[in-house]
Amino acid sequence: MNWYLKVLKNFATLDGRARRLEYWMFTLFDVIFTVLSFVVGAVLGRVLNLDEALNGAGLGLIFCLLYLLVVLMPKLSVTVRRLHDTDRSALWLLVFLVPGIGPLVMLIMMILEGTSGPNQYGPDPKTTVEPAA
């Protein structure tokens, strides 16, 4: 959970580097919270009997979309910092827009180990000592 909160606190930081652990822990909690926001919205919609045609799923989709909108900038910033860790610029985000193969290429880049030692984007986050929380 600390990794998730760290990314939220650094939502406007596009410089520097992010380790694989930081990126994937944020992604894990992001998926969990996305599903939870949908479930809470759907249950709430069902209990309040707001949308009989979709059985409450309409409110669930609204909650889910609101959550995704709130975390859009933190997602982009941690992805940019993860690309920096692999010594790639933020322009590599555009690869995601290539139909079919783009998301697969981005997944592979997020899985790759970062460059060891400092690179043009900053010091190695694995060797940088983080202050205790």
Observed structural traits:
single chain; 133 residues; mainly alpha; 5 helices
Order of helices and strands: HHHHH
Shape type: elongated
Number of strands: 0
Major sheet: none
Low-confidence stretches: none
| Mean of pLDDT | 87
Which structural class do you get from the secondary structure elements? Answer: mainly alpha
Q: How large a portion of the residues is in β-strands, by DSSP E?
A: under 5%
Radius of gyration: 18 Å
How many helical stretches? 5
Distance between the termini: 12 Å
Fraction in helix: 55-70%
Count of discrete domains: 1
Explain this structure to me?
The protein has about 130 residues and is mostly helical. The protein has one domain (about 1-110). Helices cover about 55% and strands about 0% of the residues. It contains 5 helices and no strands. It has helices at about 1-10, 20-45, 55-70, 70-85, 100-110. Helix 1 crosses helix 2 (about 20-45), helix 2 (about 20-45) runs antiparallel to helix 3 and helix 2 runs antiparallel to helix 4. It starts with a helix and ends in a 22-residue tail after the last helix.
